[in-house]
Amino acid sequence: MYGESIMNEQEKIDREWMRLALELAGRGAGHVSPNPMVGAVIVKDGKLIGEGWHEYCGGLHAERNALADCRKKRNDPQGATIYVTLEPCCHYGKTPPCTEAIMENGLSRVVFGAWDPNPLVAGKGIDILKKAGIETEGPVMEEECREKNKIFFHYITSGMPYVIMKYAMTSDGKIACETGDSRWVTGETARRRVHKTRRAVSGIMAGIGTVLSDDPMLNCRLEQDPVDPVRIICDSGLRIPEDSQIVRTAGKIRTIVAYVPERAAEYAADPKAAEKAADGMIPEKKAERLAECGVELLPVSAGEDGRVDLRELMRLLGERKIDSILLEGGSELNFSALRAGIVTAVQVYLAPKLVGGAGAKTPVGGAGIARMADAVQLSSPKMTFLGQDILLEYDVLPQDTERKGS
Predict the structure, then answer these.
(1) 63: annotated active-site residue
(2) Which of 51, 63, 87, 332 is catalytic?
């Protein structure tokens, strides 16, 4: 009984220090992609003697930053315990293995939050430490640690970006009035939360319809620590206006336009389409001009509907180290993304407003799903109140493969 009491007390202590490590890990949001956010604290005789986190991609890992903090404070880590939110790495990448740093500095105990799913680590880091005689404990607060790095866990195991479909709607399910006016559906607190999400993801994706109707910037407008995600525009026919804000700022914010070469050629050959775009130049010439503005053009195969094949696009973006995408694509792209099965999570900002209008747009358009039994299934929501608005966050549940083409 006494031994169990001691163990439970130690567990409580371990959880408290792990919570601090998790808090530190969050400071890397928007800076470490496609690496995980990791925090570490070093404790000796019940006192914090060093702390650190992975600050930017290519920089020192959390463990080495915590050890550097020890040295800076003239604290000796010999015999101390290190708490780290992810299993220490054991391979050479842009930095040396953290397992080496732990052994070289004489740490006697390692408490980790979650196993690293990277095949280069995946349990090997802990095995190395155990063989070196270092006591290891974990996973501790595994669910919280995995949640902190759900993007990394998804990307490292699938090679595909973690896609969050986000939209704001009124309480009667409208994303805009029948006139097209949509400023603003939600209040300032909710809009600020959106920009925090933009900072945390690698990319933000929209369709050409959104660009033509709203001329958005798709940037991060936080006053402190703004980090602009890569802007990805799905534009099958390469219709994006050269005077749009997206193109004019492509030299400052990385911008990718995904298009279907055959569709772009057809569009340019159609005189009426060319008039609508106010551009009768052949695709190659327009492509040259867009490239001169800093736009990265990404040719993609056509899907069944003749538009950009979204699954192929995700694969290509994953190869370019884009591990997460906030989909702010408009109702047509939203449906296409759901049909393609690329959406991982859904964020719904719900405003206490009613606008009505049979023709007013809803969040998910397209052809729709024919039978309720084939509806895309979501998890139970996590609910957050943001001023007068509510944020509902869902995970997309695995879908029956037979339903994807419905």
Answers:
(1) yes
(2) 63
